[in-house]
Amino acid sequence: MKQLQNYINGRFVKGTREFADINPANGSVIAQVTEADQTMVDEAVSAARRALEGEWGRLTVAARAALLNKIACGVEARFDEFLQAEVADTGKPVSLASKIDVPRGAANFRAFAELIKTAGVESFRTETPDGLTAINYTERKPLGVVGIITPWNLPLLLLTWKVAPALACGNCVVAKPSEETPATATLLAEVMESSGVPAGVFNIVHGFGPDSAGELLTTHPGVSGITFTGESRTGAAIMRAVASSVKPVSFELGGKNAAIVFADCDFADTIKGLSEAVFLNTGQVCLCAERVYVERSIFERFLAALTREAENLQLGWPTHATTTTGPLISSDHRAKVLSYYQLAGKEGATTITGGGIPEFGDGRDNGFYVQPTILTGLPESARCVKEEIFGPVCHVAPFDTEEEAIAKANDSEYGLAASVWTSNLKRGHRVASMLKVGITWVNCWFLRDLRTPFGGVGLSGVGREGGMHSLNFYSELNNICVKL
Ligand code: NAD
Ligand code: 6OD
Predict the structure, then answer these.
(1) Secondary structure class of 452 (helix, strand, coil)
(2) How, if at all, do strands 29-34 and 18-22 pair?
(3) How far apart are CA 446 and CA 210, in angstroms?
(4) Considering 339, 375, 406, 473, which has the largest number of Cβ atoms within 10 A of its Cβ?
């Protein structure tokens, strides 16, 4: 049986407690994973602290950027291994992981290598009360040891999205990947080692959240700041855990994202775009649209066309090239999604398509597949319209006016992302600016430029990452005021 170990101070370390890494496509065990205990987390944080004081702390920005580019090349050189590991751990189709997850695993390092080389600092010429001047300028220093906690839906993408800017800014990191998807983080540790990243700069501790590596890391006094991606209520628990030590946090949390479709949209493009927005990664992207509001004059036509898209999705083995839709991540998560499928009926929904579990007649029946599902007819107050489901499902509702669509889209405790579909660009800008979210896409979805701010409002997060926002989170800025 394959073993996945912790990576601490430049060495792979096995412990006594283990847990199983499960393939969600058929329920089989992929590997046994070492769960980090208190001693291992302590060692990882101490190693990171020592590394900050050593050779790593003295590297020039140019040298750090060169190292990040080397790591990107290292990921690309082992593209197929990363691909296989990510597909096995998550059950996502190979067509998706090869297009998004693994390329972004390299692109994140390249993007922040570029950015750190050109990132300037602020400076101001200040007039002083005695008629002289002073210069204020800012110095960028590492935050210190950054604790990184990531989820299972885009494991390599989301881990590297945080590791790359943290290292670019000169920090050392201790990362805890999701217990559901430990494999690509372990491979990344191998790439760090072969790229010549000094021991202690990058550490991986495997395990769970509460009473395990996650909690041990977030509450560790040697950790300077926490960056977390995951569920909103986990974010709240972490916030409580770090409150007494006043650590900086960056939280990228859940969403209940709306899409607004106007009658003047490019119909074919919108159906294609929204089919992705609802069903990509089996609906397990924080940015997925779970609430779709459609102008009444095209409502029936839209519903029929989106239903055709849902029914044409190819639920299959993740490793098959033609598969568009894999399983959900776990048996527990499937139970949660199915509970919402059932709740929808009780809340008065009409299930247009899906609502259950597909049957394959082979090993996939032991996996965690669900049918892509489209609901309609729910009141806005329904739990299925309010709560994040995180599966291949959306509720589609008609609207009559722009104001009504905006009000419904904004009627959420979450505020991560939205999309607006219209040929009227003035309206696109206008509506986008009225939406209370961190990111709005107009006539597209999940189109990323890594320099842009990424994050959410309300229950969807705290702070922004991306571009300079990441560099600022992963740095301590020291303002120096010199009187001339
Ligand atoms: P989760 O919150 O259950 O787990 C995320 C990570 O936190 C895991 O590594 C887990 O072990 C750890 N964890 C759990 N409890 C913890 C605790 N008390 N202390 C420390 N660590 C703890 O989330 P998930 O189920 O893995 O991921 C799905 C969720 O993530 C969805 O809500 C989704 O919307 C959200 N998400 C958000 C973004 C974003 O950028 N906003 C991106 C991806 C996923
Ligand atoms: O693209 C990104 O940088 C990013 N953070 C995506 C998050 C997706 C959520 O599941």
Answers:
(1) coil
(2) antiparallel
(3) 31
(4) 375
What residue's CA is closest to ligand 2, atom 7?
A: 286
Asked if pLDDT for residue 349 goes beyond 90, the answer is yes
Cα of 39 to ligand 2 centre, how many Å? 32
464 HSE (CA, 13 A, CB side): 16
The closest alpha carbon to 87, from 327, 366, 336, belongs to: 327
Instruction: Please tell me the distance from the alpha carbon of residue 322 to that of residue 263, in angstroms, as a whole number.
Output: 32
Binning pLDDT at 50, 70 and 90, where does residue 223 land? very high
* Ligand 1 lining (C-beta closer than 6 Å): 149-153, 158, 176, 178-179, 208-210, 214-215, 218, 229-231, 234, 237-238, 252-255, 286, 388, 390, 416, 456, 461
pLDDT digits (tens, 9 = 90+) for 238-280: 999 999 999 999 999 999 999 999 999 999 999 999 999 999 9
Question: Does residue 22 line the site of ligand 2, with CB under 6 A?
Answer: no
Question: What confidence tier does 397 reach under pLDDT thresholds 50, 70, 90?
Answer: very high
CA distances for 481 relative to 119, 131, 278, 477, angstroms? 20, 16, 51, 13
Percentage of the chain beyond pLDDT 70 is 100
* 185-210 core/surface letters (b: 16 or more CB in 10 A; e: else): bbbbbebbbebebbbbbbbbbbbbbe
Active site residue 252: yes
Count the Cβ atoms, other than its own, within 10 Å of residue 53.
11
Distance CA(58)–CA(358), nearest Å, equals 56
Per-residue pLDDT tens over the stretch 80-132: 999 999 999 999 999 999 999 999 999 999 999 999 999 988 999 999 999 99
CA 89 to ligand 1 center in whole angstroms: 16
Token representation of residue 426: 């003035």
CA of 288 to the centre of ligand 2 (A): 11
Three-class secondary structure of residue 461 per DSSP: strand
Give CA separation, 450 vs 5, 49, 418, 467, 468, in Å. 31, 29, 18, 6, 10
**Would residue 10 be called left, alpha or beta, if left means φ above 0 and alpha means ψ between -120 and 50 degrees?**
left
The pLDDT value given to residue 120: 86
Q: Kindly state the tokens that stand for 406.
A: 């905006």
Q: For this structure, is 265 an active site residue? A: no
Residue type, 433: S
For 248-284, give the DSSP string.
-EEEE----EEEEE-TTS-HHHHHHHHHHHHHGGGG-
